[in-house]
Design goal:
With 68 residues, the protein is of the alpha+beta class. The mean pLDDT is 93.
Length: 68
């Protein structure tokens, strides 16, 4: 399973619904890109290096950045 599918499953939302939340709410579901980490957060739609509290790294990407 790739990170986009993992995020969709964890959030219980389709990719389209997650993207829409970023366009309407200003934040959207995001996931740590480190292998083995499935920590999720709400970050700005253009986030490509958000902070992961689990890994202690700037490796969180928003759903919108995962799609493009």
């Amino acid at each position: 399973m790739n990170k986009l599918e993992t995020l969709s499953e964890i959030e219980g939302m389709s990719v389209e619904d997650m993207m829409e939340s970023g366009l309407t709410d200003g934040v959207c579901p995001s996931i740590c890109m480190n292998k083995g980490c499935e920590a999720t957060y709400d970050y700005e739609p253009d986030s490509t290096n958000g902070w992961c509290d689990v890994c202690k790294t700037n490796t969180v990407k928003s759903v919108i950045e995962l799609v493009i």
